[in-house]
Design a protein that fits this description.
Helices cover 23% and strands 36% of the residues. It is α+β, with helices and mostly antiparallel strands. It has a single domain, classed as Hotdog Thioesterase (Thiol Ester Dehydrase, Chain A, Roll), CATH 3.10.129.10. Strand 4 and strand 5 form a beta hairpin. It is elongated. The protein starts with 19 loop residues before the first strand and ends in a 6-residue tail after the last strand. 25% of the residues are buried.
């Protein structure tokens, strides 16, 4: 249940197909972020934590764990897309299209693809978005579609 008087975030009626959200602020990913996340998730691939190994790779330096970049980009979308959501329903077509390195600053933008009333849950609906993560130089490094179950404003009270 959403607390009375809450005005933060969007509700079902606030979304329209074609609407674009530029999520802000960006986030500079540090080497410590990358190593800590990799250790927390038990990912021991040396491209994430061994600079000497990474120097000999085609990338020439460490890569940020792609699960971390996905998590950061999804987090950036929360205030605009899912702050009031009841549930995430899924992500699909996640594509990792360019490398991200420690020190890169990343941003995100989302486009609303579809909005529809739920057939089984009155006062709620499904919002589907396509999100891109991009670096400060404009390079898109990932994109995905996401669906969330979002209440109407009146149903959230």
């Amino acid at each position: 249940m959403i607390a009375a008087g809450r005005t933060r975030g969007n509700f079902l009626e606030d979304f329209a197909p074609g609407q674009v959200f530029e999520h802000w602020p960006g986030r500079t990913i540090t080497e410590a972020d990358n190593i800590q996340f990799s250790l927390l998730t038990m990912n021991q691939h040396p491209l994430h934590c061994d600079a000497a190994f990474a120097a000999g790779s085609e990338f020439g330096r460490p890569l940020v764990n792609s699960a971390l970049t996905l998590a950061i980009v999804v987090g950036m979308t929360v205030n605009d897309i899912s702050f009031n959501a009841i549930a995430n329903l899924g992500w699909k077509e996640i594509a990792l299209v360019a490398p991200v390195h420690p020190g890169d600053t990343v941003y995100a933008r989302s486009e609303v693809l579809a909005v529809r009333e739920s057939r089984s849950r009155p006062g709620q609906g499904i919002v589907t978005t396509r999100t891109e993560g991009f670096k400060a130089d404009g390079t898109v490094f990932l994109h995905f579609e996401r669906s969330a179950l979002v209440p109407r404003r009146a149903a959230a009270r």
